[in-house]
Amino acid sequence: MGQGVKQKQANHHVTRTQKNIGAVLVEIGFITNPTQESAFQNDSYLESIGISIANGIFNTAFPNPTPNIPSVDSSLEGYQ
Questions:
Q1: Is-contact 52 2, C-beta < 8 A?
Q2: Using CA of residue 71, residue 23, residue 27, residue 8, what is the dihedral sign?
Q3: Does the model's pTM come out above 0.85?
Q4: Which of 1, 7, 29, 42 could form a disulfide with 36 if both were Cys (CB 3.0 to 4.6 A apart)?
Q5: CA 39 to CA 23: how far, in whole Å?
């Protein structure tokens, strides 16, 4: 789904003012693209994007989790 992870320093407000926290900037598409704009109105598409972002953050924070730590996907099973 994505282009990969790109780490770089940025001059965004949150990174200038909050030096003790991490920030993630995610580009998921362009609302000027009619196909992508339509996809953004689909709850399943948005949910899959949210889960992917959460898993990416989780896997970065915990690259070698212990077996008893569930993935974000499994913790959402049965959630409506």
A1: yes
A2: negative
A3: no
A4: 29
A5: 25
